[in-house]
Design a protein that fits this description.
Two copies of one chain form a homodimer. With 229 residues, chain A is mainly alpha-helical. Chain A folds into two domains: 63 residues, Orthogonal Bundle (Arc Repressor Mutant, subunit A), CATH 1.10.10.10; 143 residues, GntR ligand-binding domain-like (Four Helix Bundle (Hemerythrin (Met), subunit A), Up-down Bundle). Chain A has eleven helices and three strands, in the order H-E-H-H-E-E-H-H-H-H-H-H-H-H. In chain A, strands 1-3-2 form a three-stranded antiparallel beta sheet. The longest helix of chain A is centred in the middle third of the chain and has 25 residues. The interface between A and B is medium-sized, with 27 and 27 residues. The structure holds a DNA duplex (30 and 30 nucleotides).
Amino acid sequence: MKTVEKLPTETAREYALRAIKENIISLDLAPGTGISENEIASFLGVSRTPVRESIQELSKASIIEIYPQKGSYVSLIDSQYVEEAVFLRTVLDTAVIEEACDLATEADIQKIEDNVALQEFYLQNYATDKIYVLDNEFHRLIYVAARKETIHAMRSTILIHFDRLRSLSMMTVKDTKIVNDHRLMLDAIKNKDKETAKQLVEKHLNRYRIDEEAIRASHPEYFKVSENM
Amino acid sequence: MKTVEKLPTETAREYALRAIKENIISLDLAPGTGISENEIASFLGVSRTPVRESIQELSKASIIEIYPQKGSYVSLIDSQYVEEAVFLRTVLDTAVIEEACDLATEADIQKIEDNVALQEFYLQNYATDKIYVLDNEFHRLIYVAARKETIHAMRSTILIHFDRLRSLSMMTVKDTKIVNDHRLMLDAIKNKDKETAKQLVEKHLNRYRIDEEAIRASHPEYFKVSENM
DNA sequence: GGTACGGTACTGGTATACAAGTGGCTATGG
DNA sequence: CCATAGCCACTTGTATACCAGTACCGTACC
């Protein structure tokens, strides 16, 4: 497990949740790893309570499996859940951007504009490591503009199943293309052009198609064995 | 707060979550009510720990608002969240039933068939109080058939915002119509007829249109005052 | 050598103790 | 009578103690 800095503003619970999430997505807590509430608590320098609450939450989304009195494990990558994550993102993102076309205010658009401008700036200056955070923030801002922030929170939890597979794939979509997609989406929202916006989202998501079988071949121990074989 | 029987199979945490949820949906814990972890814990006969974990979970979906060191409150009915719930249900249910048309196995269909048959039986015998539970189960089985069970779990949490408004409306859609809708949906899945299935879901959801303003007029104290007025 | 049994050191589930902060009530002084 | 200061009873947040159940390992006995 990798160290995560505790921000002064967050509670122990928020810190623990963030630290565990980041470690799972980055695969520093690899699929199948056994985790102990006590161990993580002492590693993070907090008590079991906040750690336990975080683990409970992740287990709700099947990111962690809890076997009472036996142990807890980071879930193996399960095609079932990855598909659910991809499905949810596809269905929601397209529906939400259409809503954003209808509902976005000037202020919403300005925030997105600032975000995209920053993406373009970092792209020009080859500081592409910053783009990952801005990317997530961009998509959140779309949900905010569509007045669907609660839905976004749920989306991001289940998306962990997909995110860690993406980490594992080490597949990198050219940042140029990502940022360009974002610029075009913003334009579509400005123009209230739902049809174009929807098509852009579909095209954007298609860039992240992952060859799961190839990864399974090189890291079979990370994957759940399907029952139907 | 109304008593909820503890099932012998569930943990204290599951019991607490279920009890609190049911009380919020039934409005026995009315919107705006102040709740205390200690109070609920002693009422349910468990300690603060499982109660606290449940409240934390509900606060994630904005069902409960926590003000540290001050108190926690059942959220007032907020049009914003109700709309998010309706939006989520509409978007997901239509997309999921299409998936169910593709993916449902014989076993899945048989379970739905049994459920619908039971609905029809209770309808014939005027035991319509049983239909509410079967209704929820019916929609869950559709998600199961579409291999989207995790998504269903998230759906049901956010739907609380809508469910309690429905309780408040005391609006009753004729059970005859509901059960008939379900029968037709099942047929569409059997026939793998996505288009019909989708239209049926839309029609079905339209039956639950609620006149929020009328309810707001008769119970203004349950509603959040909009900031844009 | 093999097997069965028991101790031990873990697990997560629950209960309780303590900490830090808030708000209201009361008592006291003007 | 009013205002203010301080105590007290509450809140949630966190840490810790205790419980029941599990797994594993070593030992003793066959």
